[in-house]
Amino acid sequence: MQTKKIAITTIAIILALSVIAASVLPATTSTIKKGETVEFYSGRAGVSFTDSQFTGTVRLARIDDSKIKATNHPKFKHDLLSVRFTKSNGEKVTHVLGAVYVFFIVNRSEVSAWEKGELAVYVYDSWKNEWQECYSFLVNDSNGKSSLACRMRIFSTYGVAKK
Question: How far is CA 138 from CA 77, 84, 152, in A?
Answer without folding.
Answer: 16, 23, 15
